[in-house]
């Protein structure tokens, strides 16, 4: 029986060692949370890094890691510390990530990072080939694996290969600065179908292909001498029912079963007439505009002092890539900003910002989504932004206001949100004020439309659409051969 091979940098589970024992936790991040349900419900195997380096993994635990992964229909690959440094912390997160998010000043071009990236991509390709059987479909994910499609194609010319990019694809003028731009594009063109979140990213990619490689591009197809490659946009959805159900359970929860976090959130809202909570959730990443958001919130408190003691920003930042210097600097900057603003505005009974720097269990995420009156998401660039969609899906009574950066992929589907430019603090402050004052009927009207759309195009539909389109490319290839 044929299967789908999903492959991404990390597995949806993260394995670590605590006191000589294996500890398995779910991975945090958009790709893992989004694809998990597709993997759980379908006939697929998922290949990726376990989170452990070869040096950390004692020989007596190797079989146990393999088994733990197998229990979840996963295959774990292990890398050395040096490989992770060059491939993951190096080329993936100091070259591609900043470049594709237009942070050109952060890009580093180290040739040993690039060499390691190539070597590790080959390891992923080898792991696919080892598990691949004729008729299987291969679905490769994200910017860490841009070379894998062609590496697989070279060994399995007839394979059906799809690739989905979870981050933006930058404009040609930005992409062309990459020293290994031809290799990257050729690597991707090993796929039959290349997917992006938005039409803009698709357009940027096609323009780079035609201008750098000089391939002919017709609408959304690239003509290679031996075959066609289809490029299309598939805006990723969320597991809508999961969030809707969790929000329902949240409201049915009896008082004794409430989490401490929930009690604190309720305490604030009941503390003063008209008190409101603003929520933000992201990985601690410079692309997410966290420092901009805090500064805009400061500006809001100055411009609208009537909300002092009534409004609170609940800010959850999940630790991420803490070995990359820019992330360490950002952490310091945010710690200092939160401290400064809390020091500047706090009263004896109130602090303006509640800042959590940690990952939280799912039920606490739901507490936050369900209890906060406003979600304030201000990325400077973001491929999609699933948090925006999860917030709306968790609003059981359909109240709540989403303030969303227009630089996110999600903004293109969520016009009913208050869309802002993250660099315009005046606009953000006014949007917060507008959100606080928005009548409930208007909130409900906007969210009804959003919920309907998100429910219809959920993650299952997204994955099925991608796979359907991938199957079609293969059928077209076969019928062209027959002619
Ligand atoms: P991310 O940059 O990780 O994803 P995002 O899309 O917002 O960003 O997804 C974050 C996910 O992590 C959400 O599903 C959220 O529920 C979860 N999460 C956040 N904080 C958490 C916490 N404290 N504890 C547990 N879970 C938490 C990348 C791209 C995005 C793109 C996605 C999917 O950068 O642009 O939307 O992939 O393609």
Which short descriptors sum up this protein?
483 residues; 6-stranded parallel beta sheet; binds adenosine-5'-diphosphate-glucose; alpha/beta; EC 2.4.1.15; alpha,alpha-trehalose-phosphate synthase (UDP-forming) activity; 9-stranded mixed beta sheet
Model regions low in confidence, pLDDT < 50 over at least 5 residues: none
**Based on CA inertia axes, which overall geometry fits?**
globular
Overall number of strands: 17
- Beta-sheet strand percentage? 15-25%
Name the hetero compounds present: adenosine-5'-diphosphate-glucose
Mean pLDDT: 94
Q: Label the structural class.
A: alpha/beta
Helix content: 40-55%
The description of the largest β-sheet is: 9 strands, mixed
Give the distance, in angstroms, between the N- and C-terminal Cα atoms. 28 Å
Strand order of the biggest β-sheet: 5-4-1-6-7-8-11-10-9
**How many whole angstroms does the radius of gyration measure?**
23 Å
Can you count the helices?
Answer: 17
Protein name: Alpha,alpha-trehalose-phosphate synthase
GO molecular function, one term: trehalose-phosphatase activity
EC number: 2.4.1.15
Subunit structure: Homotetramer.
């Amino acid at each position: 029986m044929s299967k789908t091979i999903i492959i991404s940098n990390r597995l949806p589970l993260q394995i670590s060692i605590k006191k000589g024992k294996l500890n398995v936790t779910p991975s945090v991040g958009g790709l893992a949370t989004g694809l998990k349900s597709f993997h759980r419900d379908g006939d697929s195997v998922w290949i990726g890094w376990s989170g452990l380096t070869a040096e950390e993994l004692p020989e007596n635990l190797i079989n146990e890691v393999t088994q733990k992964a197998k229990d979840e229909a996963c295959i774990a690959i292990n890398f050395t510390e040096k490989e992770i440094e060059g491939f993951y912390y190096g080329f993936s997160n100091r070259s591609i990530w900043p470049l594709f998010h237009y942070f050109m000043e952060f890009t580093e071009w180290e040739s040993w990072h690039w060499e390691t990236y190539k070597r590790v991509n080959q390891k992923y390709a080898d792991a696919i080939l080892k598990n691949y059987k004729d008729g299987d479909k291969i679905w490769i994910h994200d910017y860490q694996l841009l070379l894998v499609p062609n590496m697989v194609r070279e060994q399995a010319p007839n394979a059906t290969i799809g690739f989905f990019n979870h981050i933006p694809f930058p404009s040609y003028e930005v992409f062309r600065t990459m020293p290994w731009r031809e290799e990257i594009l050729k690597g991707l063109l090993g796929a039959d179908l290349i997917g992006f979140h938005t039409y803009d990213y698709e357009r940027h990619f096609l323009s780079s292909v035609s201008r750098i490689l000089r391939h002919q591009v017709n609408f959304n197809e690239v003509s290679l001498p031996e075959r066609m490659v289809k490029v299309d946009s598939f805006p990723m959805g969320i597991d809508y029912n999961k969030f809707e159900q969790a929000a329902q359970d949240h409201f049915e929860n009896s008082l004794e079963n409430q989490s401490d976090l929930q009690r604190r959130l309720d305490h604030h809202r009941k503390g003063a007439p008209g008190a409101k909570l603003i929520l933000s959730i992201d990985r601690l990443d410079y692309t997410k505009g966290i420092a901009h958001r805090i500064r805009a919130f400061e500006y809001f408190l100055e411009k609208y002092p009537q909300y002092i003691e009534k409004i609170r920003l609940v800010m959850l930042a999940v630790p991420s890539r803490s070995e990359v210097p820019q992330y360490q600097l950002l952490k310091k900057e945010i710690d200092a900003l939160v401290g400064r603003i809390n020091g500047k505005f706090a009263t004896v009974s109130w602090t303006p910002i509640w800042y959590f720097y940690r990952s939280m269990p799912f039920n606490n995420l739901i507490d936050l989504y369900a209890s906060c009156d406003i979600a304030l998401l201000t990325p400077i660039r973001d491929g999609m932004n699933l948090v925006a969609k999860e917030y709306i899906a968790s609003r059981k009574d359909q109240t709540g206001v989403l303030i969303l950066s227009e630089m996110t992929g999600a903004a293109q589907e969520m016009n009913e949100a208050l869309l802002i430019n993250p660099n315009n603090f005046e606009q953000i402050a006014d949007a917060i004020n507008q959100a606080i004052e928005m009548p409930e009927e208007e909130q409900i009207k906007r969210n009804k439309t959003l919920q309907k759309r998100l429910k219809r195009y959920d993650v299952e539909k997204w994955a099925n659409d991608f796979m359907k389109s991938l199957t079609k490319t293969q059928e077209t290839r076969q019928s062209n051969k027959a002619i």
